């Protein structure tokens, strides 16, 4: 007789667990990363006392977390990919928008400059026309500087986003360590529930995969997380911190390194599979921003070198040999702050038709001097003889001069074009100083040299003699346009793939409220039925008691 | 198939924002009148638009250069015509003087008229253009080309034409030297020198009628050769002005072509874009409506 009470009781418990679980699911329908839980119930063990075995009711075997680890892992990867491309696309759009207004770019200012030269050709002795050349030269340099400053500002934005990504990385690592510990503890205690902790940990991993591409393996209920080329972020209950530091050769550029306390590891590079927002930022900086700044510099160098070279061939209004019209900043050379040797390196522009938008590294690797091209790290020249490598720079449009000895591991960063757009200026003050004439004793209206200067507008002086100043600028605009377009398409498709994976995962393990409503009704009925069983047991028991009266 | 309720909402939300973004971009295009809002929308067209804009600007600048040339050439032409008139006046005086019955008073008054005409000729030869540069000084455009000295009038300009680009690969002189306007005779004397000599002779009346006739003959030969020189310069100017007109026509046709190309690259097709907009609006409205309908379907509505 007592059996029926305990069977009824077990049915009530199971139904209650069902209603509670459905309620928990409903409560968490909108919780990010929540996986639907279901009650797994089993029949109670049969009693042994009766000849015919009667069941002992039901019991809850477990509350199961509906989770597909296959889809979960896939989602980590699609999320990194999507996040990287989305960040890259978002960044490049800034440059795309900057280039959008053709009336304020470099092109119309360049055009104006050559137009004022043309105007002077109608009256080369006219002081007002001569002065107007200097004004338009001033305005073309201002356009270069403005654009360059805008690119620099985008670079500063990249730096601060890298910093916040690294903070996200570090706090996720701490969070994961805490969850690893909590999950181990929960599994150690009988009857305790680790489902919600697992959900939380999966969600932290998922959020982390937006910041950086991660590889995860699970060991003894704890997850280990690695990034980049296998740099550890979390191993069991240890979080490995990362930090940002200025590049050793370019203080305006933040790098991400593993923080080993007194010393730092090698920086994460866009050549590694960094992925996520951080990978997107590194890739944008190396593949778009720096090349754009350099390409703009190349156009500025093309203008300044072409006009200056012509200017020094001519004579000004007072019969003095011409001086450069434009100032160009020196070629950027930076010694690595960790250099051990005492060497110093000087660089100057050479044949500008050989210049590209690349940066270079000169270094001593072992006993080999090397000239490397950035960002693809292609070795341009390598030799045990430093002079041979230095001479190879001429083929890249600049010349190097080394003094002092390098020690193995020492390096220099050479940026031939990077600073030109930012630093271009007008050197002449007076229209008189324009060297429009071809000879010292020329007539006031001699414009032979002026007409050579005008010819610089369409002279193919850049990119191996295939591009004029204007077309080199057009190529920059075209490259940004097509890179942006490509990123728009790839980020759209990555976003669709990610959404599909997320939908698949959600459909497998997310909460469907109609389903929960059904469960609620089902367990409500089960609860009512169990109640009836108790009521009937009560009546049966009364019957027995009444028999005794 | 199971559908996660959360995912239904977030998915529908994402689709609605996509549709809204499309409507927004179309509206931006309509507001700006340009289909190329950023280079990424059509990179090849953006680069082409830069090229076309540049070549149009260069062409327009050539047009301005041609205007400057035309104005200077017109001025030179008018000046040369005045010089021709002046020359005809000098010739009249020469014919008047070349008569054996002239008294010394007659000759003295002819000398006065000739003096005035010589001054006028010198002034015309030293004409300047609107920028204050001398018309007939070649590249020495700021030096007064014809200056009086002991031997008469010397040419201080040069013979270098001052060239201006009027079209790709075509330059034309905006100013030329004036030396050739006053050819010299076999005794290395030009119009000014011979005029000066004749005026002096007429003033002092030292020559016999026969000697005077010889001297006036030499002068009229110089007048004739000067007239030929002025005419040939005017003919050259006429040819150049004609070429400038043809270049203008050509350039106008090419500018029109470039403008059409630029319009095709940049300008919005309003009919197409407006119909795109109404289609996008329709699909956004449909998506909103269906979201509203589907999201109101819930079993919980029936649990009481």
UniProtKB/TrEMBL annotation, chain A:
Name by which UniProt lists this protein? Flagellar hook-associated protein 1
The main location is: other
Going by the UniProt record, its keywords in alphabetical order are: Bacterial flagellum, Cell projection, Cilium, Flagellum, Secreted
Q: Where in the cell is it found?
A: Bacterial flagellum; Secreted
User: Do the record's keywords include RNA-binding?
Assistant: no
SUPFAM superfamilies membership:
Phase 1 flagellin (SSF64518)
* Pfam families per UniProt: Flg_bbr_C, flgK_1st_1, FlgK_D1
What family does this chain come from, according to its entry?
Belongs to the flagella basal body rod proteins family.
Q: Which residues form the Flagellar basal-body/hook protein C-terminal domain?
A: 507-547
TrEMBL record, chain B:
In terms of InterPro entries, this protein maps to:
Flagell_FlgL, Flagellin, Flagellin_N
Q: Which residues form the Flagellin N-terminal domain?
A: 3-140
- Quote the Gene3D superfamilies the UniProt record gives: f41 fragment of flagellin, N-terminal domain (1.20.1330.10)
Question: Which is a Gene Ontology cellular component entry for this protein?
Answer: extracellular region
A GO MF term: structural molecule activity
Q: Which UniProt keywords apply?
A: Bacterial flagellum, Cell projection, Cilium, Flagellum
Among the GO biological process terms of this entry, one is: bacterial-type flagellum-dependent cell motility
Major location (coarse): other
Entry's localization field? Bacterial flagellum; Secreted
The reply to whether Ribosomal protein figures as a keyword in the UniProt entry is no
| Family stated for the protein in its record | Belongs to the bacterial flagellin family.
Q: Which NCBIfam families match?
A: flagell_flgL
This protein is called what?
Flagellar hook-associated protein 3
